């Protein structure tokens, strides 16, 4: 992992959302992309972590529209869901 305490905290929060579905989506997104994030993208993710799991999953599944404040390259990557790995 990373020696930066802030990134370790984000890693933990990403994988301990409260629901298994959110853990896989948010945690998987963090795992796949965090190493390449700049300060602006890290700040986006930190704000994203404050959203409700039900909203995040709804956006990911397309059952509720993504609010304008979240639209952009980071959300575009998130919505691909190509990073979700579910193991038995």
From TrEMBL:
Q: Which residues form a coiled coil?
A: none
Top-rank lineage group of the source organism: Bacteria
Q: Does the keyword Chaperone apply?
A: yes
Instruction: Spell out the InterPro entries in the cross-references.
Output: SDH, SDH_sf
Q: Which UniProt keywords apply?
A: Chaperone
The UniProt entry's sequence similarity note says:
Belongs to the SdhE FAD assembly factor family.
Q: What is this protein called?
A: FAD assembly factor SdhE
Q: Which organism is it from?
A: Sphingobium fontiphilum
Phylogenetic lineage: Bacteria, Pseudomonadati, Pseudomonadota, Alphaproteobacteria, Sphingomonadales
